[in-house]
Amino acid sequence: MNLLNLFKVSITAVASNKMRSFLSMLGIIIGVAAVIIMMSIGQGSKESIRKELSTMGTNLLTIRPGADMRGGVRQDPSAMQTLKMADYQRIMQEKKYVTKVSPEVTSAGQVIYGNNNTNSTIYGESPEYLDIKQWVVEEGDCFTEEDVKKAAKVAVVGKTIVTELFGEGADAIGKTIRFKSIPLRIVGVLKSKGYNSWGMDQDNVIIAPYSTVMKRIAAQTFFSSIVCSAITEDLSDTAIEELTQILRENHKLKGDAADDFTIRSQAEMMATMSSTMDTVTLILVVAAAFSLLVAGIGIMNIMLVSVTERTKEIGLRMAVGATGAVISLQFLIESVLISVTGGLLGILVGCSASGFLVPAFGMPSSVPAWSIYVSFLVCVCIGILFGYIPAQKAARMDPIEAIRHE
Length: 406
Fold this sequence. Notes:
The protein is elongated and about 105 Å long. A 6-stranded mixed beta barrel has the order 4-5-10-7-9-8. Strands 2-3 form a two-stranded antiparallel ribbon. The protein has helices spanning 3-15, 18-55, 85-94, 129-132, 145-150, 159-166, 210-218, 236-250, 266-309, 311-319, 324-360, 369-395, 399-404; strands at residues 60-65, 69-70, 73-74, 98-113, 116-125, 137-140, 154-157, 176-179, 182-190, 205-209, 225-230, 261-265. It contains 13 helices and 12 strands. The two termini are 26 Å apart. The chain has 2 domains: 3-52 and 272-404, no CATH class; 81-259, no CATH class. Helix 2 (18-55) packs across helix 11 (324-360), helix 3 crosses helix 8 and helix 9 (266-309) crosses helix 11. By secondary structure, the protein is of the alpha+beta class. The chain is 56% helix and 18% strand.
């Protein structure tokens, strides 16, 4: 019997038990769909994070205080006061691979206007900060270097601040708000960025001159961090080396003394986040893949039942000349047919759910093309692997005993 005839016989056998065949496929459908959905969520989340980080500038560099050992106890980096005005001034004087620099001081608290109030975070920055973080002033202007020198009580605010304090679409330019009892005149409103991948409202922000925040609000003489932008993303590592040398000299760190600061690039953060998302995706896919294993066992079970039910048919076919290899191949084809058909339906369900259902729940989704090919290949392997034992059982039957079977 040629291969085409075997396919016809297999299709007829599968079609003759439609409900049983569909229930066998159902496990494969659910398993493949689950794998594709998990992979699409993982891939979509990774792309969303990368896109969001890239909006902050792929050449962004952040200098933060490093942890230190005092009395045998490692201190919290946020409590360290290693970044001073002298560091900022030295970087501005000697930088070659860095274009823009902004010292940063932050403070969280309540902002008030009239009877309205909301909680927010104020960022003390230089005017270059908006270029570094790719913020756009939609209304008004940014504060100036002159405002920084005078520690002027001015600020640029996000859309959420305007909405919460003045109402949707209100004109906030020139109005004075109070942050921790310090009056700040609004000189600009930032273009909306919305929520980020971590669910944080990027528009709930106040940006003021760093000197104002240091002297009038935080009452401190050190910086929380210093943000910079390298000339290009490719020169980020060179810029980090340059900044490290400048800060080590300024902090009088010699020989093998550990740095009392850390410098992180946006590219490094992207790589870390991508690695984390890959790990999470792998865990989700492995969990979903177990359903494929269960589905494969289900196919083997159904095929074993089918072999038992068709014992007499197998005996008659062997009696008229069908070899064990032909019988084995027929049952393998039936197993693969069930598995592949279920896989194709699972791919259709998985892609449809990833395209319409997942985004409806507010989750990012992107189906990688290779996941479809891998899913199809896995279905073929499942059909062969779990169809092998039933096929061998059928091939090893004694024709005479099989014909006598009732």
